[in-house]
Amino acid sequence: MNQPAHTSESPPVPASINLGHRAAFFGVRVYAFAAAVFLAALLFEAIVSGRMPLRTNGLHAVAVTTGNLGIQAAAESLDWRGAAMLLIGTALGGLGVAAYTLRLAWREERRACRVLLGVGLVVAALVFLIQMLGPTSYLVELVRHIDAQRQDSAAIAPLLLVPKRFGEVIAGVVGIAMAATLLLPGTLDSDGLAERVRRLRLVLYVSAAMLTVGVLVAQTSYAWAASMCVEPEALKPIVEGGTRLAAAFYTLVLAAGYVPAAIVMNRLGARLAEVAVSRGEAESAEAWMTTSGLHNSPQAQILRLLTVVAPALSAAVPQFAQFIGGG
User: Fold this and answer.
1) Domain ranges (residues) in the chain
2) Higher-confidence residue: 187 or 151?
3) What number of other Cβ atoms are within 10 A of residue 196's Cβ?
4) Are 91 and 165 in contact, with CB atoms under 8 Å apart?
5) Helix H segments across the chain?
6) pTM over 0.70
7) Residue 143: how many CB atoms within 10 A of its CB?
8) Cα 303 off chain centre by
9) Which one of 92, 166, 256, 269 has the lowest number of neighbouring Cβ atoms within 10 Å?
10) Cβ atoms within 10 A of the Cβ of 90, count?
11) Cα–Cα distance, 184 to 192 (Å, whole number)
12) What pLDDT, in 10s, does the model give residues 258-267?
């Protein structure tokens, strides 16, 4: 049976490149790298916290209040509640984006998606083991000490720590979704790459929003815990240091997940551009990438760089505002 001939009115076939069957596991490798960075940072924090614990016996001089919250503690609790609400909202949004991205990846590369989810479960188990080694932040130690001194009142640990853990779990799921954008087919065309670039950027923006709010939750959690002491100013260095540590940690994790994925996609775009130019579809690679939605303008690169470092910038805003106000 004769095949119908292509006419001049037929839609052009998009430029494509052959990646081979291993391309489906690019995302697994990127996720393994990001997970290794995350686990190394978490283990480092657990070891340092174990070697240099918060000396709670020194906090006895900063007598912990008992009974109902004072005015300052109640005010700090309002800030924490607002931050927790923002975290819940951004986390649910992130969960929706992750579910959408993983559903598409499951349809396209089911076998590689299974492997990626399996690696994610292994990482979750390792996180649990590391946290069993001891507190991974001074906030945990401070909250435990306050609960020990407030024996006549309800424990605050569930209130202060559960939202933070909830956000981190959702962030882990979103991290898997970010890697899922790189579960590539054996043959990749420009339309397929452009779609994956859009997914990656969507996950990036959602992740940055979640982790930036996570820094705010860390700051308000430390501040609320400190306000339950008679002399909260004595714990101000712990509040500021804990906030900066959370900002650095979240920024590192976000960069470890996004930057390798972006580099891979940029290289794939360059390869596709070479194919398109060789076929005479465009005069230059830059022109083709612009029309295909794959071009990275300097303004767009700066925007995404600021997005990646948004958690760190959020921790610097209060100090900057204080500096301006003091000047």
Assistant:
1) 20-326
2) 187
3) 25
4) no
5) 26-51, 71-108, 110-132, 138-149, 157-180, 190-227, 236-278, 285-291, 298-308, 310-326
6) yes
7) 24
8) 17
9) 92
10) 22
11) 9
12) 999 999 999 9
Q: Would the CA dihedral through 187, 189, 195, 196 be positive or negative?
A: positive
- Among 169-178, 182-191, 248-257, 293-302, where is mean pLDDT lowest? 293-302
Segment 33-51, tens digit of pLDDT = 999 999 999 999 888 887 7
Question: Among 314, 322, 317, which residue's Cα sits nearest to residue 86?
Answer: 314
Eight-class DSSP state of 229: B
Identify whether the C-beta of residue 32 lies closer than 8 Å to the C-beta of residue 209.
no
Average pLDDT over residues 240-261: 92
Coil, helix or strand at residue 62: coil
Buried b (16+ CB within 10 A) or exposed e, 226-250: bbbbeebeebeebbbebbbbbbebb
User: Six-digit token pair at 196?
Assistant: 């994956």
Locus of tokens 């340092």:
48
68 DSSP 8-state letter = S
Helix (H, G, I), strand (E, B) or coil at 245: helix
Helix axes 310-326, 298-308, angle to 10 degrees: 80
Q: Is 188 strand, coil or helix? A: strand
Phi, psi dihedral angles at 182 (to 5 degrees) = -105, 15
